[in-house]
Amino acid sequence: MIRLSSVDKSYGSLKVLHGVDAEISEGETFAIIGPNGAGKTTLFKVMTGEIGCEAGSVEFLGKDVTRDPAYKRTRAGMGRTFQVARVFKEMTAEENLIVAVEARLQNTGKSDAPWYAVKPSSATLDEVHSILVRLSLDKKARTPASELSHGDKKRLELGITLAGRPKVLMLDEPTAGMSPSDRVGVTELIRDISGKGSGLTVVMTEHDMGVIFGLADRIMVMNQGRKIAQGSIEEIRANPVVREVYLGKEAHHA
Ligand SMILES: Nc1ncnc2c1ncn2[C@@H]1O[C@H](COP(=O)(O)OP(=O)(O)OP(=O)(O)O)[C@@H](O)[C@H]1O
């Protein structure tokens, strides 16, 4: 689904990624973890096309997308959420999703309506309703996004991304800044969305080890811009280098 080969990235004179390789397979939930400043978000942005890299390559669905900007990767099926949810604040939850569904239909040439159509089709409304139910936001359909709780905003953003029918869902710290109960709710939601049979591939960065261990099929651990380990939850838990560099530090914080 995604292959990174020998990716180098610097910010000015600061080199933050050193020859990073990664392969993400179809249908898996792949988590990137590591201490603060390890380069997780930078690697994530190189995958999504938000930033470029000086050396190495990025393939998506077997195609070299290293030079493709983010919007092209989105259109090719890479859906992304942000650490701070991006929603239209003045619009209701339902309106946000209508825009997202209509945008997908326009982009895929499946809408007969002109882009300025003011009334969504009944098919769009049905799809929006089913997304709202899936996200447990149906009772807040008419609430302006600005009035939603932080957790509900993140749910809505996830819904907007899903409305684009992505092949891979890129989640940058999906539970950042959430209350413990919202965190559990969003973890369950991601598990439900990416469950067996969905075919959806998920790539995520996350600080909360509970979320990671509850979701990931495979974990890649980064430290100081390098991949230091990769494997299943059990392999990562048992890896002495990871324990020292990352889990050990987490344990000290706890
Ligand atoms: N836009 C930028 N300009 C300059 N330096 C940056 C920029 N973004 C990140 N860095 C630096 O690059 C390094 C890696 O940062 P990055 O955000 O990728 O790490 P991270 O593992 O995601 O960290 P965190 O867990 O704190 O989010 C850090 O030293 C950071 O200060």
Helix-strand makeup class: alpha/beta
CATH-defined fold name of the largest domain: Rossmann fold
Helical element count? Answer: 9
Q: List how many beta strands DSSP finds.
A: 10
Bound molecules: adenosine-5'-triphosphate
CATH architecture of the largest domain: 3-Layer(aba) Sandwich
**Order of H and E elements:** EEEHEEHEHHHEHEHEEHH
Strand % is 15-25%
Strand arrangement across the biggest beta sheet: 6-7-8-3-9-10
Q: Unreliable runs, pLDDT <50, ≥5 residues?
A: none
Overall pLDDT score: 89
**Estimated radius of gyration:** 19 Å
Helix content: 25-40%
Query: How many domains comprise the coordinates?
Result: 2
InterPro entries: AAA+_ATPase, ABC_AA/LPS_Transport, ABC_transporter-like_ATP-bd, ABC_transporter-like_CS, BCA_ABC_TP_C, P-loop_NTPase
Pfam families: ABC_tran, BCA_ABC_TP_C
Organism: Aminobacter carboxidus
Family: Belongs to the ABC transporter superfamily.
